[in-house]
Amino acid sequence: MTNERQVLYGQLAIGPAGSGKTSYCKAMLELLQNSKRQVIMVNLDPDNDSIPFTPDIDIGELVKLEDVMVEENLGPNGSFLFCMDLLSKNFDWLCQRIEEEMTKAKEKIAKQPAESQRRPYIIFDCPGQIELYTNYPIFKQLIHRLGNDLRQESVKEVCDYLL
Ligand SMILES: Nc1nc2c(ncn2[C@@H]2O[C@H](COP(=O)(O)OP(=O)(O)O)[C@@H](O)[C@H]2O)c(=O)[nH]1
Ligand SMILES: [Mg+2]
Questions:
Q1: Residue 61's domain spans which residues?
Q2: Pocket-testing residue among 11, 12, 14, 23, ligand 1, by greatest number of atoms within 8 A of Cβ
Q3: Is residue 1 part of a domain?
Q4: Could you tell me the CA-to-CA distances from 1 to 5, 6, 7, 142 in Å, in that order?
Q5: What CATH number should be reported for the domain holding residue 107?
Q6: CA of 120 to the centre of ligand 2 (A)
Q7: Hey, which of 6, 41, 57, 125 would disulfide with 25, CB 3.0 to 4.6 Å?
Q8: How many CB atoms sit inside 10 A of residue 20's CB?
């Protein structure tokens, strides 16, 4: 690949709370790592208490559910929506973080033997609250903007895994 605009492939794990999204993301990460693929893991669930992998990007860097509950005097559901609204308003932050992780991933790929060099892959572990998909445009906007707004890369094809 020379001047070709590089394409970033990935998945969003979407489904009801407790349906196995995080477990699925972990299994996908292990599968891809076994084939020497560089993977960028993104946790977008502010209520993901015990993540069984280390996310490269975490919504917790931007906002923490427990802080919102205290500072905004909201219950768990209100705090959750507050966090997602904040993420929506800070979409540029997410794009910037993805670009940073892409740079790191490319540096690692460059050190791999040529025959095992493959494009990085991105996995989003998404929240389970169904109203985020039925009543709010945030995830529709997220997928649309991921395809359009990333300056150096684009998320060209995204598979939604409905669990
Ligand atoms: N029996 C069974 N349990 C699972 C499976 N996948 C996940 N779990 C369990 O279901 C619970 C919720 O899984 P989690 O991945 O956190 O779901 P999430 O809320 O959708 O992210 C955890 O206790 C998992 O260990 C599966 O394929 N089979
Ligand atoms: Mg989860």
A1: 6-161
A2: 23
A3: no
A4: 9, 8, 11, 28
A5: 3.40.50.300
A6: 22
A7: 125
A8: 14
